Amino acid sequence: MRIAQIAPLHEAVPPKLYGGTERVVSYLTEALVELGHEVTLFASGDSQTSAELDAVWPQALRLDPTIRDTVAPHMLLLEQVRKRANEFDVLHFHIDYYPFSLFSQQPVPHVTTMHGRLDLPELQPIFNTFNGVPTVSISDNQRTPLPQANWLTTVLHGLPEKLLTPRPEIKPSYLAFLGRISPEKRVDRAIEIAAKAGMPIKIAAKLDNADRAYYEEKIKPLLGRTHVEFVGEINEAQKPAFLSGAHALLFPIDWPEPFGLVMIEAMACGTPVIAYNRGSVPEVIDNGVSGFIVEDELSAVAAVNRLPTLSRAAVRQRFEERFTARRMAQEYVAAYEELLRRSQRPVLREVNAG
């Protein structure tokens, strides 16, 4: 099958540091290539892939401080994909609703994975208008605010099986927070849970400019507490040691998390997750096996005390059973095949071969 993967231009694919969507696009692209498909990745020029790379913009927008209008490069991205659309069996977009208007008029089957939060009022008229555009959710819970959308399927994220692995030689000695400093991620909650559990906490987190005022007012004063160590943003190579050294990953979110990639990153390292019961959490964490799902700070502290009852080997095993990139790619291929069946289009590579 000839497949186009269309990534956001904000980060490289894969990103050098933080970047959930671009990271998932990379894992999916590489897994599709390994399965034998012909894949073209539309992304920034500093991306790395074994697929064909169509570099629409020279580098990730995040790395170019001169870029003030990030929509403009994405308009060029859409036009480049439109020009090449007939080369592909299916177009797979990862750029929110940007392609809806243009590509709903195109004959080539296309699908958009919705990676972000969907409980925003301004999205309602978009999905009322474009309620025939095929979309994929990354958890069933993510769909809740938009029942009118044309949901093709849900595909949970996955990681390459050997990307992050346990480091059994590292003795766990702290609780961990990994991700982004923002009001909805509640690193302040994680700091308080660790304090009440009598454990140190290490925080590896990205800080966006949009959240700097929140950081200065709410989070920075907490970082001076004796049990807190702020590590800053870490890369992929640093994650296995960071997560393996943790008794658990704390995920005390305060929003309807669409998926939460850090949860399966922790699981890949054999590290249990203590997560608040919000959004996708019950679909990702098997309570009592790969971690604990909690309702509040009190139950989170109690869950820390119950961590010795969990097997880190079982946590890793559950990752291998449910969250590999190969499984993710196979489920997307099934979705592509359904789109082709509905459109009654032959597969291009089969036509050329025949």
TrEMBL record:
<dbReference type="GO" id="GO:0016757">
    <property type="term" value="F:glycosyltransferase activity"/>
</dbReference>
<dbReference type="Pfam" id="PF00534">
    <property type="entry name" value="Glycos_transf_1"/>
</dbReference>
<feature type="domain" description="Glycosyltransferase subfamily 4-like N-terminal">
    <location>
        <begin position="18"/>
        <end position="119"/>
    </location>
</feature>
<keyword id="KW-0808">Transferase</keyword>
<dbReference type="InterPro" id="IPR028098">
    <property type="entry name" value="Glyco_trans_4-like_N"/>
</dbReference>
<feature type="domain" description="Glycosyl transferase family 1">
    <location>
        <begin position="171"/>
        <end position="307"/>
    </location>
</feature>
<protein>
    <submittedName>
        <fullName>Glycosyltransferase involved in cell wall bisynthesis</fullName>
    </submittedName>
</protein>
<dbReference type="Pfam" id="PF13439">
    <property type="entry name" value="Glyco_transf_4"/>
</dbReference>
<dbReference type="InterPro" id="IPR001296">
    <property type="entry name" value="Glyco_trans_1"/>
</dbReference>
